[in-house]
Amino acid sequence: MALVSPTGLSDSGKTPSLSLIRLSDNEKELGFANRSLSSLSHVIAWIRYLTMALSVLAVLSLANLAYGAGRVFHDDFEDGTANKWTQSDYHTKAKIVQAGVDGNGPHSGNACLQINFNGVIAWNDPDAFTAVKLDNWSYNKEFFIRMWWRLDNDFGRGMSEPGDGAKLMRLNFDNGNDYATFMLQGGGSHEQWTVDSGLIINNWSGDGGKLLSQRVWHKVEIYVYQDSISGKVKRWHNGILTYTYTGKTNNSNNVPYYPLYLPSNWSNNPGWEHGANNHFYVDDVEIYSDSGTGASGVMADATITSSVGSQTVPSAPQNARVTSAP
Known about the structure:
The protein is of the alpha+beta class. The chain has 1 helix and 15 strands, in the order αβββββββββββββββ. The radius of gyration is 32 Å and the shape is globular.
């Protein structure tokens, strides 16, 4: 029998004629066994390769879940300014303080934003309420807002219904209504969301009845998924989900939810008159969105956090490769 190398070539380097190859039954069985073992080795190698690939894909999938959003705005006012915000129309810009009129301090650090409503001067006076405005932030369809609010002990005093008509925050004002107003009424919050001037949320329990009754810091969190069909709005107060909505959250002009106004105004309905001092404090403002990266947690369940200024979150894997074992 002519000697054949594993490549099918004879020792001379020429392809042998099949008629010259004669294998005994034992040689045939041995060759079949070798080929079977070789095929089995390849199968095992591929199984190992696929197992490794699936493991890496699972890691990347978890990384995408944890890092699919990021913080796109943050202000703790520790620089002593409101420079990240613009003036809200003609209103005097809100100032930064180290303590409230009632002597209580910021939520964290040494500074917070102070807003005041003055109801004894003309409604169009620049000091009728002090304010700030956030013109925009980066997002595609999804964002999450977290901030801390506190009403001073002087807020709403002397009124039969303390705070009625005070609109503490607004998200945009397209069509004269869209999208959201966070107002006080009836001793608690009255939060209204509109799309194309149609009311989609009319909630009276967003603050759990605690913002006015407890003049301490309260955590306010809002999640929005902007969509013409399957949108979503969620609101938490002090970590407790107080209402949720699913449906149309995008108006016909397809406008974003910014600007963010702090505050909006104090409505002047009869019985909603208020005095010269109604202080409202804001601290530790964070906005996360689907256009950011590097955060841990999920926007839709209010677990999202940033590693900046807190615990370190490892970076998502970069340039990951799968290689087979030798």
